[in-house]
Write a structure and sequence with these properties.
This protein is an alpha+beta fold. It has two domains: 4-125, MutM-like, N-terminal (N-terminal domain of MutM-like DNA repair proteins, Alpha-Beta Barrel), CATH 3.20.190; 128-266, Helicase, Ruva Protein, domain 3. The protein is built from ten helices and twelve strands. It has helices spanning 4-18, 35-39, 114-118, 121-125, 137-145, 154-157, 169-178, 192-212, 219-227, 232-235, and strands spanning 25-28, 45-51, 54-59, 64-68, 74-79, 90-95, 99-104, 108-112, 128-129, 164-165, 255-259, 262-266. The strands form four sheets. It has a four-stranded antiparallel sheet. A four-stranded antiparallel sheet has the order 2-3-4-8. It has a two-stranded parallel ribbon with strand order 9-10. Strand 3 and strand 4 form a beta hairpin. The radius of gyration is 20 Å and the shape is globular.
Length: 273
């Protein structure tokens, strides 16, 4: 499943394709949404905004298309009416004179009024958005200290979109490593310095990943390894997907464990209890 940085980059690409020109035609695969094909035709799209792992495509008549990729959904941007060869099912298509934005395989699509956006069950459950430019380290520290979260295990908590939205599996491993926090800890087990480090990493790493197309490792290390001819997978992350490889900080072999139902990577030396 794509994480917050990937969703934000997708939103940028979709907006670049469909915001500049009036909508020429829409297609909804689901029958209950078919009436909106006419209602939204010839309208202007004002913005495409990521909310956690969902997208809100806002039109100039106050309607918004809510879409969530879930596990298998994928957006494809093509020249107008140029469809890719794929076995995936087309769920939503937005066409204009220049481009087509095509959503395949996703099943969670709605058209919402402003009031419905405010009360949408998924959107109202989202926690602080780590990729929102207005989100501060102080706000994230407060989330870690909040009694409803402070006694939960960090590996599961960092996947909880109601805690911090926009994080996912590779980011949780990287955040715990950068903050030097053992993966067995809860927020209540952490020192104030560790909580501050977790909060800072929870903002900094998603932003870096967004700007660098998925790189969470120290950029100085990245440049050095690239100059040595290393492949992207060899320098992309601090610890994620690097089981058995030496830690970039201390040289200890990176360990993989299944925690909260997902694979998590850590350095047993840098993140020692």
């Amino acid at each position: 499943m794509p994480e917050g940085p990937e969703i934000k980059r997708a939103a940028d690409q979709i907006a670049k394709a469909i915001v500049p020109y009036p909508v020429g035609e829409l297609f909804f695969a689901f029958e209950h949404l078919k009436p909106y094909e006419t209602i939204l035709r010839d309208r202007q799209i004002l913005s495409v905004i990521p909310k956690g792992k969902a997208l809100l495509t806002r039109f100039d008549n106050d309607l918004t298309i809510y879409s969530h990729n879930q596990l298998y959904g994928i957006w494809v941007i093509r020249s107008a009416y140029q469809y890719p060869h794929t076995n995936r099912q087309l769920r939503l298509a937005i066409h204009n004179a220049k481009k087509s934005a095509l959503l395949y395989s996703a099943s969670d699509i709605e058209v919402l009024t402003p009031e419905a956006v405010l009360h949408h069950p998924f959107l109202t459950r989202l926690g602080v958005d780590v990729l929102d430019p207005d989100t501060t380290v102080g706000q994230v520290i407060d989330r870690f200290k909040d009694k409803q979260f402070s006694r939960r295990n960090l590996p599961g908590l960092l996947l909880n979109q109601g805690f911090l939205c926009g994080l996912g599996n590779y980011l949780r491993s990287e955040i715990l490593f950068v903050a030097c926090v053992p993966p067995t800890y809860r927020p209540i087990d952490c020192s104030p310095a560790q909580i501050a480090a977790l909060a800072k990493a929870s903002i900094d790493l998603p932003h870096q990943s967004y700007l660098t197309k998925g790189i969470t490792n120290d950029l100085t290390i990245v440049q050095k390894l690239k100059a040595e001819g290393k492949k992207r997978y060899e320098y992309r992350h601090w610890v994620f997907n690097r089981e058995g490889k030496p830690c970039f900080r201390c040289g200890t072999a990176i360990v993989k464990e299944m925690l909260a139902g997902r694979r998590l990577y850590f350095c047993p030396t840098c993140q020692k209890v």
